[in-house]
Amino acid sequence: MISLTRSPAWEALLEHYRESCDLHMRDLFNADSERFAKFSIQLGDLLFDYSKNRITQKTVTLLMDLLRDRGVIERREAMFSGGHINVTEDRAVLHVALRQQDETPVYVDGENVIPLVRQMLKKMRDFCDHVRSGEWKGYTGQPITDIVNIGIGGSDLGPQMVAQALTSYVDGPRPHFVSNADGTQLSEILRNLDPRTTLFIVASKTFTTQETLLNAGSAKKWFLSRAGNEEFVAKHFVALSTNREGVQNFGIDPENMFEFWDWVGGRYSVWSAIGLSVALAIGMDRFEEFLAGAHEADVHFRTAQPERNIPMLMAMLGIWYNNFYGCGTQAILPYNQYLSRFPAYFQQGDMESNGKSISVDGVPVNYGTGPIIWGEPGTNGQHAFFQLLHQGTKLVPCDFIACAQPLNPMGKHHTVLISNFFAQTEALMRGRTLAEAKAELEAQGLAPNRVSALAPHKTFTGNRPSNTFLLKRLTPFNLGLLMALYEHKIFVQGTIWNINSFDQMGVELGKQLAKNIQTELAEGGRATRHDASTNGLINAYQHMSRDNS
Ligand SMILES: O=P(O)(O)OC[C@H]1O[C@H](O)[C@H](O)[C@@H](O)[C@@H]1O
Known about the structure:
4 domains; monosaccharide binding; 6-stranded mixed beta sheet; alpha/beta; 5-stranded parallel beta sheet; 23 helices; Rossmann fold; gluconeogenesis; glucose-6-phosphate isomerase activity; binds 6-O-phosphono-alpha-D-glucopyranose
């Protein structure tokens, strides 16, 4: 295949960029009263409005030419049918199989994985029913009231974000999450827990992750110091993993292990047994609604034509800004407090997937790949960093997410929230011209010299792009739908950039070096083996940590 930036589809986009980059969205809206209808899509309870982007119909056509040219359709089919598209690890990528709703076989190396998925779901259901009904009892015969998921990365961010997003559906044990190597997190959580009624869920795909094993070991120690008998561990520790041996070595009965498989990527694993803490908290019926919502997105991604395909549009708009406008970041701004961890979740989802600079063919790429993903919930962000979004020198494409129906109606709160939500995308798009700024200042009765002095500061260029996702209501189904759209966006972008979105080798080096330093710290001598900065810091640390004055 011709390299990305030499392909005719890319060159056509470059040419189109040059001729269209000065267009202002204000003018595009003024010129076409149908713009919203043309550039928005309803999918179930979700409305996706992408009309506030710096695009014309031609932009979409050219972006989708590129998508077809780069083999996205073929690669999508390869993913859904169990092909080893994770080439560096030689694995299939089948989180979609975890949420498939029918029994159509999906083969990985000749084995149909759907029966495995069904068995896993059945085991999760039985366990959830036992724990939630109180049949599953702790070592003193009391039911479980609290669950602690111990994991990190994909084994933490997914269940944590989803459990938080679905807080209003929690009618089972209270979920807690421990991830950090910093013992403060575990200590603070344990402080308020009762070992007799607490269940620990050790979540690790590999069961080798240092932080998780450290936290799980300390939790077990805490538990045993109170329960006093190793036999009771079976009532209070379960594992979610692909590594049966590792689980056994840790001292968890394989009976209490919920298995998943190497074709489930860590950051795509909340749909697997890794979602157990969510299922315990909200019940298996609702967990399955969550899976069904994701499946709806899968069907849409697989069947809608590219020009009407939400993840494909999200992805190609991202390519447009990332590779043609030179935008380095993408903000995700949920106007919903329950979704406050959504940006952090997709920070891992996107940045660990597409933060790569070597192509699948093993050569450095000569174009930008994954953007920096960041964001905070609205309206908080407005009072913090939105200044830069509106008037800064950087162009930041933004995703705005909100729900039409509040789960906690309270006076005027929702109207205020949602008005801000609409106002922000309007302001980013429209801006305020110098003439408008002057007119407003004059209307306030300011002297002409103050008007001239202030007006430039009150001017907004506008033309700042955003996507809007409006959900009817935050339900398990709709959350699954929204999340899967983002997942597929990442897949499409990775395919365009010709990188492997499903490995994460960039996290290895730091881990290796940390192990060396850990040994050095244990030995306690003077550090000499590193660069001057690292040696200096280690030596200063050793001095400072011993200094009791
Ligand atoms: O689930 P685990 O095997 O414990 O892995 C936990 C996390 O750590 C790794 O370093 C990876 O960067 C993540 O992708 C992964 O989700």
